[in-house]
Amino acid sequence: MVVSGITYFIAFLASFLIVYLLIPPFSKLAFKLDFVDKPRKNVERKIHREPIPLTASYAIFIGFFATYLVVSKGISWETGALFAGGVLLLIIGTVDDWYKTKGKDFPALPKLVVQLSAAILVYASGIVFTGFINPFSGDYIVLPVVLQFLLTILWIFGVTTVINFSDGLDGLAGGLSAISATTLFIVAVAMGQTNSAMMAIILLGVTLAYLRFNKPPAKVFMGDAGATFLGFLLAVIALDGAFKQATVLSLFIPILALGVPIFDNLFVVIKRYLQGKPMYQADASQAHYRLLRAGLNTKQALGVLMLLSTCLGLTSIILLLVQV
């Protein structure tokens, strides 16, 4: 299916406007329901000083699917799995965020089960990492089904988690998601993968609209519900697009496109493991906290990480061009 540039632009604009218009009323509702992230004393991760609404996730969810369902012109197994997985993440994320409004921490196990369930839904719908081309023989190597399952689930769960872990600085998770979405859009268009490209451009629209309210100093948060949803979408977009190129070199394209959250949080997880801490135990060991402790302010730390993410995104595009 050929998709024109104007169609991509309309999808981008529609998703942007929906989120931009929905965030203010959802924010007002958050204050009425006391669904806000309150500053917590002696918690290094809580650097804001005023209560912040946690309702941007619902605007993001509505903006993405309202646009995607219209432009996709029909429901498929893949679309259904994406929607169902998104709903699951939104529900468990909302429960987690609600605990945070009460100054409590939600147990990690239910979140783990739900995130894995969302990933399994995607796998069952047929969005799967199946294999790659042998660079020496040119033959396509089909991985065993068990390995296909494990790698697909690990990728979706991993990206969902690292984007969520990165949501600790105003504008960071949204900014990283926007840069990754832009990179994956360019890659998908170059490879003729219209569905992946459409999802990426819609995701770019919703993240940029969110950033209008989340840039420093943030007026709204998306919470775990929104951050896990964005990570989930980015993982599926990569599976449905960049990973289908199937050459060994192309496997690095989505990894580099999501390089900052992936590499930073791999470091964090390894560090927590070596210290005997649970992987999900929140702390202030991510790169943005380290930059703040080094003396940078919020905007400077954000700028450094955005620049690094952009460089990695450009590197992934260069890898694509090398193969053309």
Automatic annotation (TrEMBL):
<feature type="transmembrane region" description="Helical">
    <location>
        <begin position="77"/>
        <end position="99"/>
    </location>
</feature>
<feature type="transmembrane region" description="Helical">
    <location>
        <begin position="301"/>
        <end position="322"/>
    </location>
</feature>
<feature type="binding site">
    <location>
        <position position="164"/>
    </location>
    <ligand>
        <name>Mg(2+)</name>
    </ligand>
</feature>
<keyword id="KW-0808">Transferase</keyword>
<feature type="transmembrane region" description="Helical">
    <location>
        <begin position="197"/>
        <end position="213"/>
    </location>
</feature>
<keyword id="KW-0812">Transmembrane</keyword>
<feature type="transmembrane region" description="Helical">
    <location>
        <begin position="220"/>
        <end position="239"/>
    </location>
</feature>
<feature type="binding site">
    <location>
        <position position="224"/>
    </location>
    <ligand>
        <name>Mg(2+)</name>
    </ligand>
</feature>
<feature type="transmembrane region" description="Helical">
    <location>
        <begin position="111"/>
        <end position="133"/>
    </location>
</feature>
<dbReference type="GO" id="GO:0016780">
    <property type="term" value="F:phosphotransferase activity, for other substituted phosphate groups"/>
</dbReference>
<feature type="transmembrane region" description="Helical">
    <location>
        <begin position="145"/>
        <end position="165"/>
    </location>
</feature>
<feature type="transmembrane region" description="Helical">
    <location>
        <begin position="52"/>
        <end position="71"/>
    </location>
</feature>
<keyword id="KW-1133">Transmembrane helix</keyword>
<keyword id="KW-0479">Metal-binding</keyword>
<feature type="transmembrane region" description="Helical">
    <location>
        <begin position="6"/>
        <end position="31"/>
    </location>
</feature>
<keyword id="KW-0472">Membrane</keyword>
<dbReference type="InterPro" id="IPR000715">
    <property type="entry name" value="Glycosyl_transferase_4"/>
</dbReference>
<feature type="transmembrane region" description="Helical">
    <location>
        <begin position="251"/>
        <end position="270"/>
    </location>
</feature>
<dbReference type="GO" id="GO:0044038">
    <property type="term" value="P:cell wall macromolecule biosynthetic process"/>
</dbReference>
<keyword id="KW-1003">Cell membrane</keyword>
<dbReference type="GO" id="GO:0046872">
    <property type="term" value="F:metal ion binding"/>
</dbReference>
<keyword id="KW-0460">Magnesium</keyword>
<dbReference type="GO" id="GO:0005886">
    <property type="term" value="C:plasma membrane"/>
</dbReference>
<dbReference type="GO" id="GO:0009103">
    <property type="term" value="P:lipopolysaccharide biosynthetic process"/>
</dbReference>
<protein>
    <submittedName>
        <fullName>Undecaprenyl/decaprenyl-phosphate alpha-N-acetylglucosaminyl 1-phosphate transferase</fullName>
    </submittedName>
</protein>
<feature type="transmembrane region" description="Helical">
    <location>
        <begin position="172"/>
        <end position="191"/>
    </location>
</feature>
<dbReference type="GO" id="GO:0071555">
    <property type="term" value="P:cell wall organization"/>
</dbReference>
<dbReference type="Pfam" id="PF00953">
    <property type="entry name" value="Glycos_transf_4"/>
</dbReference>
